[in-house]
Sequence to fold (161 residues):
Amino acid sequence: MEIEMKIRGLMVDQATNAPIVLLKDVSSDIVLPIWVGVPEFNAIYLEVEKTTPLRPMTHDLLKNLIHGLNAEVQRVVVTELRDDTFYAVIWMEQNGESVTLDARPSDALALALRADCPIYVDEAVLKAAKVVPNTADSRTADELQRWLENLNDEDMGRYKM
Fold:
């Protein structure tokens, strides 16, 4: 089963300084942190802030290419969490046919924002993500998990959605 999510905010992991995209279930308080690279974080941030760069960025090019091929992005789905790595699929429609593309979640999220399409996470991913990835010390992971679960609007700072 797929759960619809929205990008709730953007922040930085205090332990590793790695960028994090926070996805929130539209019908509950479940928050899923996904660690992303700096360029992907910037691409997502630019779209969240509705900042238009002087020249098209990679994800803008991808959106334009999809549109130029008479296709439309229908949804993106974070489908799997394996070995602390998230996997995603971009669902498109072209000439009445469904087309799927394997993608990194960060790229799928950046494209979803530009295509204004829904974001979903497979329920199994939410269950598997109970332990926060990319943290070597389990005590630190537990602390970070509690911190992420207790975020409020003030914690989101200028990245509040």
Notes: The radius of gyration is 16 Å. The domain at 2-159 is CATH 3.10.690.10 (Bifunctional nuclease domain). The first helix runs from residue 38 to 48. The mean pLDDT is 85.
